[in-house]
Design goal:
By secondary structure, the chain is α/β, with parallel strands linked by helices. About 40% of the residues lie in helices and about 15% in strands. This is Methylenetetrahydrofolate reductase. GO terms for molecular function: oxidoreductase activity.
Length: about 300
Amino acid sequence: MSILSFTRPDKRRAQTAPRGDIARFLDGASIEVMPRTAEKVADFRTLFAPGTRIYIAHIDGTPIEDMVATAARLRRDGFEPMPHFPARIIPDRATLADWIARYRGEADVSQGLILAGGVSAPRGAYDNSMELLETGLFDAAGFTRLHVAGHPEGNRDIDLDGTDANVSRALAWKQAFSERTDARMAIATQFCFEAAPVIAWGDALRANGIDLPVHIGIAGPAKLQTMLKFAIACGVGPSLRVLQKRALDVTRLVMPYAPDDMLAELAAHKASHPQFAVEAAHIFPLGGIGKAAEWLSTHRNGSAPTQAAGAT
């Protein structure tokens, strides 16, 4: 059986979770920023707890100097920066080694998200995350945590025929890599909008021998139009129907969307199934970093932090 060939429940009774279960589910949650969005935040320390893992998305065209400077700022402020390493925009081994050395030397970075990247064709020597991992450069530089990408609803950019063959083979390879190295690894996923596919996918991973912990992508609160735009651009799968159904209701079209229902179902499932593959939540701040931080704090602590001036 392939990793993603699971039976999707047609009808799953919606679960609700006590506040304590939701808080525990969000314990250790991470957030994602870009250098240009991070610049708008006056002080991350007013938004997130010390030690929070903050991914730094490396969008094609972003200078490595901006990426390293953002990582160094986050490190100085007491956070754990995790920059992206998108294989398809890295021209050669020398460039990869240079990036790793800069992150280590200038920002004390020891973890990274290793992924293919958002461009359709490689610009140089690397096509996928596995080729980056095989270089051995991360281990040689002292990187201790390496996350890889996961796709609970499949990925048409990887499997053009609509199957899950390539995604399944890649996850099996990454599982084997984790077993032969000392790196702490996890699967960080794309965001989706429905709990049932995530639960089924997580169960399928375990059934197929993939025991890497999952950090599930959750879209932070945003206007519905914004959410739809990002969901379509990022290739979100069947759970997009949650947004599409909401968009048909004119009375709710202008209301902000928040992932509360999905969060409650996942938290309830994790509470009743402690071995569930999802270990942590990873927040995509599609409606702005400040809004995501307030939402996260409200659900984790029951009170929202004071938003930093300029946080968007």
